[in-house]
Amino acid sequence: MPVTVLLVDDEPLVRAGLRAVLEAQPDIEVVGEAADGAAVIPLVRQLRPDVVAMDVRMPLLDGIEATRALLRTVDDPPRILVVTTFENDEYVYEALRAGADGFLLKRARPAEIVHAVRLIAEGDSLLFPASVRQLAAEYGDEGGNRAARAAMERAQLTEREAEVLRLMARGLSNAEIAARLVVGTETVKSHVSAVLAKLGARDRTQAVIAAYESGFVAPG
Length: 220
Prior knowledge:
Layout: E1 3-8, H1 12-23, E2 28-34, H2 40-47, E3 51-55, H3 63-73, E4 79-84, H4 90-98, E5 102-105, H5 110-122, H6 129-139, H7 142-155, H8 159-169, H9 174-181, H10 185-199, H11 204-214
Parallel strand pairs: 1-2, 1-3, 3-4, 4-5
Keywords: DNA-binding, Phosphoprotein, Transcription, Transcription regulation
Protein name: Response regulator transcription factor
Domain Response regulatory: 4-121
């Protein structure tokens, strides 16, 4: 089955470019488009895409609020890939904090766009870990840090789960973590699932942001 994608951007040329790149791949299908975040929820309910590739800045409802609304109101929501002009953008970080699974620069090369969609759909690696770390270092606020520290303390991760979370924050995939720890991939998947459940994180991106904001892992 192909990875299905919904494109959300107020610039028609951006949507056309993304569609052309993605539909050139045999394993990816663009199932719909929208010009604003306000249209995301009804389209997701109608089309059930695997991934929503969404601009972070839009005139009526931006990608941050659209992400929050989507995750709050839709059962089994799709993966969310924020598409942005600027990498070092507080809007991007807020979208990730709101629940987006990763971000992609509009100037990315076609191969990077395809890789990002596939990686987000698979969900077993962190997209652009160095950039996420940089965003956490610059935009993580003190109030958020206090809340994240409390959540991390409540999680009571085991020593092995803590080790897995640190490796996740470095951007290692499940297979790479398994090789580093000399265990099976299924064992790593179990540890990752336990980390997400204990932290109340939707995916590894949210778990890694919690790790940075709590001070469990230094973002610098």
